[in-house]
Amino acid sequence: MWQFNELMHPMAEEFRISLGEGNTPLVKSKAIGPAMGLKNLYFKLENLNPSGSYKDRFAAAFIAHMKSRGQHLCIATSSGNTGAALSAYCAAAGMHCVLIIVDGAPVPKIRQMQLYGAHTIMVEGFGKNTEVTNAVFGQLDVLTQSLGIPLPVSAFVYCPEGMQGVQTIMYELMQAMDVDHVFSPAGGGGLTLALARGANIFAEKNEVQKKPSVHCVQPEGNDTIASSLRNGSQHAADIPGATTKISGLQVPNILDGNEVIMECRALGGNGYTVTDKIVFELQKKLAQQEGIFSEPAGAVALAGLAAAVDLNEVNPEDNIVCLITGSGFKDMLSVETHFGLPTIATISANEMKAAIEKIQS
Ligand SMILES: Cc1ncc(COP(=O)(O)O)c(C=O)c1O
User: Do residues 201 and 8 lie in contact, with contact meaning Cβ atoms separated by under 8 Å?
Assistant: First the structure.
């Protein structure tokens, strides 16, 4: 990630903390793309970052920034992945980490934070209810300001220093190939905005004329940005509460929504809303037809692409990238509950041959 140092805030080498984040694989679809009639569909495997999501790029940039300012305490909010990433990089940097967790965040994400040594506090209604969520952010704003430390919410409105790291996803894509479309899952919209800004910065610094269209995909149950982007509105809409079950995308408040609408639109991007049901179906297809173990949020971009194909908004020859933003290991409860997987039963060694024969028949 730090290879793009000159495209980010200048950072002295001694502070550039790394656990091997970034430079993630870009793999061509073997089955899903061809079945959709697409010749050039690629998946960017952000699930392969050190703590299992793209948020490692945010955490690496943010913790480097804190280190460069001599700070030793990180207080943050998280729906899971930001917290896991921050706790990993705090552990590596020898910093303390306190995390305020969204109500109902998946247990594996919380356990991951705890094992890295972070303190976790889950607040009832946080992330589900707009009033509670605003109250949490309000209190944390006051607290962190009194302590003289930044509040690392992964959105430009709170933390541009960290989001600079996320922009590197787009630098890698534009360095690798001539991309026509990038589909991005959105909660508060920070990731999608980082892609759009990354495209503009990379194009300007490298004198590239063509920039990819960045599309914003949201679950119907957290449609703060996508419909506004599609219907020509300039404003994101906050909603009373997120009803989607997709962890990471339950952000009923406006964070970077207005800027996403403006900057994606300028790049020719559009908004797509998708049902949770189609997201889970595509999570399963990614695993069974591509060998990609994604968390539900990581399958949302692909669900948006499926909608774009139905609407004839992409061409069969286009170079299309769907971000796979987090690992399936992050949300094993959804794996347990949504796919009707067989029970794990023990049999004797004598019964094994018959069991294999039954599968073969
Ligand atoms: C796996 C995953 N994908 C996508 C997102 C969406 O990011 P944003 O809130 O910046 O839109 C998140 C946010 O937590 C996430 O954890």
Answer: no
| pLDDT tens figures, 165-187 | 999 999 999 999 999 999 999 99
Helix 81-93, helix 107-115: angle, nearest 10:
10
* Separation between Cα atoms, residue 146 and residue 293, nearest integer Å: 42
CATH of the domain at 306: 3.40.50.1100
What's the whole-model pTM score?
0.95
SS3 171: helix
Instruction: Indicate whether 29 and 11 sit together in one domain.
Output: yes
Residues at CB less than 6 angstroms from ligand 1: 53, 79, 81, 154, 185-192, 248-249, 251, 295, 297-298, 325-326
Q: At what angle do helices 55-68 and 160-176 cross, to 10 degrees?
A: 130
The residue to mutate among 46, 79, 154, having the most atoms of ligand 1 within 8 angstroms of its beta carbon, is: 154
Max Cα distance, the chain (Å): 68
On whether residue 347 sits in a domain, the answer given is: no
Residues of the chain scoring pLDDT < 50? none
